[in-house]
Write a structure and sequence with these properties.
By secondary structure, the protein is of the alpha/beta class. The chain has a domain of 135 residues: Nucleotidyltransferase, domain 5, CATH 3.30.420.10. Strands 3-2-1-4-5 form a 5-stranded mixed beta sheet, with helices on both faces. Strand 1 and strand 2 form a beta hairpin. Helix 1 crosses helix 4 and helix 2 crosses helix 3. The N and C termini lie far apart (59 Å).
């Protein structure tokens, strides 16, 4: 049984979260979700605590049962330009833009956000494991980003993004050493632990 609960400081309150912040390749992806009052789901939790199978099961349920939702990607070229924190917040803002109506209140996973219009908001550490709407946003952000990484895996299979989703695994870094970087890599990130040293 899920221990998550609604937050509901206001009616029309949405939760927002992002996925892919620590990756070496691919976008940072955010979702925003407005759930019905008294919504409950015994499986729903922070996407990081759920199996792939459960996330895939929950995605269409959240899309169908939410009152409104939005998902947005910010891609590597922009991440490199504005940095990953600003890109994560911009992705959240773009996801909120897609909602049918502006929310009355925003709850955000984590401790950093920038004002969206003049709407009140609250940052909540580990909010994705505490509140339903943030958990729902975490599931959508994760599943949409995973699907994107699986698509670009077909273009560059040597990096095995289908499995590692762009995270800095040993396999991914070894592929960067062997094949170099792609247009999907974040050039401002430390892609290899030893990339700042030169063999002279």
């Amino acid at each position: 049984m899920s221990l998550l609960r609604p937050y509901y400081k206001f009616v029309d309150e949405i939760g927002t979260d992002e996925a892919g912040r620590g990756c070496l390749a691919g976008p940072v992806t955010a979702a925003a979700v407005l759930l019905p009052n008294n919504y409950s789901n015994e499986i729903l939790n922070d996407s990081k605590l759920l199996s792939h199978k459960k996330r895939v099961y929950l995605k269409p349920l959240i899309e169908e049962e939410s009152l409104s939702f939005g998902v947005a990607h910010i891609f590597p070229s922009e991440i490199d330009e504005i940095n990953i924190l600003n890109a994560s917040i911009k992705a959240m803002h773009k996801a909120i833009d897609q909602l049918k109506d502006p929310p009355k209140f925003i709850i955000v996973d984590g401790n950093r956000f920038k004002p969206y219009q003049d709407i009140l908001y609250e940052c909540i550490i580990k909010g994705d494991s505490k509140y339903m709407s943030i958990a729902a946003a975490s599931v959508l952000a994760k599943t949409y980003r995973d699907a994107y990484m699986e698509r670009i895996h077909e273009e560059y299979p040597m990096y095995n993004w289908k499995k590692n989703k762009g995270y800095p695994t040993r396999e991914h870094r070894n592929a960067i050493r062997e094949f170099g970087t792609t247009k999907y890599h974040r050039k401002s990130f430390r892609l290899l632990p030893d990339q700042l040293s030169l063999d002279l």
